[in-house]
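[retry 2/3] Tho complex subunit 7/Mft1p: previous attempt timed out, resubmitting with same input.
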Amino acid sequence: MLVKGRKIAGRGEAMTAHYAFGPLEDDIIIKHRLLTRTTTTRGEPPLKKLQKKFTSFALEIEKDADNYSDCERLAKAFLQELTTFEIPLLKSKAVIDANLREKENFNELNDEINRQILQAQADIEDLKKQLEESKIERQHKEECEAIRKLIAIQPPRSETHKIIRELEKEIAMLEAENTASSRTLELRKKQFALLLHVVDELQNTIEEEQKTLVEEMRLALDEQKNGFEDASGGSEAMAID
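[retry 2/3] Tho complex subunit 7/Mft1p: success.
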């Protein structure tokens, strides 16, 4: 039995309720009462009424007196009460069956939703792959288009071959000129080397001639000096005489 108490609080304080059972015990008790139908919000509980009807019928049968009519009346009352008690049970069973069917439908719907979610996820992954492939394909198309535009602005193949032939001729002429220039440069190098050799020989000759000339001039001066000395000696001898 649920015992409820109240604490009278002072002014401004909240009133607190104290229960003999916790929420879990309350749920168990309420579930048991609903299953056994031992309590009701109005009147006597159906199970107790059925029990009383059955007890009255059983006691009446056990009497030795001629009470067939009373037994029949109590049996009808018991059966009527049993039918009354059975109707809510049938309703409850119907509700339970409906709830079970609803639960099965819900489970099927939940499975279908999960399957659709998985399918949607797989579709999303496929679409992602297709998107990546489309991006790559579009990039390739853009590159091909850029190459096509680049090719389109280039001159025709015949004109390109003509330009290549002209360039090859020009390269051959430049190579020939380069060869001639190389030969001319080699010749100029040899001539310049010969010129340097001649200049060097000429310079040596001039230096030798200059040395010889200087030596001759020195000898001439020495002879002239000796001649002056000899002349001065003869004049002095004549003066002494």
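[retry 2/3] Tho complex subunit 7/Mft1p: The two ends are 194 Å apart (CA to CA).
[retry 2/3] clearing retry counter.
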